[in-house]
Fold Small ribosomal subunit protein S13, mitochondrial.
Amino acid sequence: MLGLRRSATTLFDHSQSLLRNLSFHGLRVQGIRVGNAEVPNNKPLKTGLQEVYGIGRRKSHQVLCGLGITNKLARDLTGKELIDLREEVGMHQHGDELRRRVGSEIQRLVEVDCYRGSRHRHGMPCRGQRTKTNARTKKGKRVAIAGKKKAPRK
């Protein structure tokens, strides 16, 4: 069984190195797939990893420092570095898993019927921002009130 695993991983390494330089009838592979997101080939890894949902500047820096990878372009990764990068990103919560967790936490707040949950339910800001004049992102476009007239200017 161990020999089969070893041969499968070496086959995976070879396929990854082939895929990096492979072109399909003039189409070039655009990027590498890490954490259910496409990391562009032409960007440095530090900024390219930020395409993954849940990984920002700080976490991408931590991942690269943990692996000892310099901030090089994504297309310059070796097969070993790519596998290590995927494993390291997999240790952090990201992508659909993180979206589900955030959604379930919001749903729990709504079901418990706490203040934050009611604000989420009504589509209002829940962190204490003012809503008399702002909060247009959450409230949507302004709606004119029929019959309301402006005060005359003096």
Observations:
- Confidence is low (pLDDT under 50) at residues 22-29.
- The first strand starts at residue 23 and ends at 24.
- The helical segments are 2-20, 45-48, 57-67, 79-91, 95-112, 115-122, 136-139.
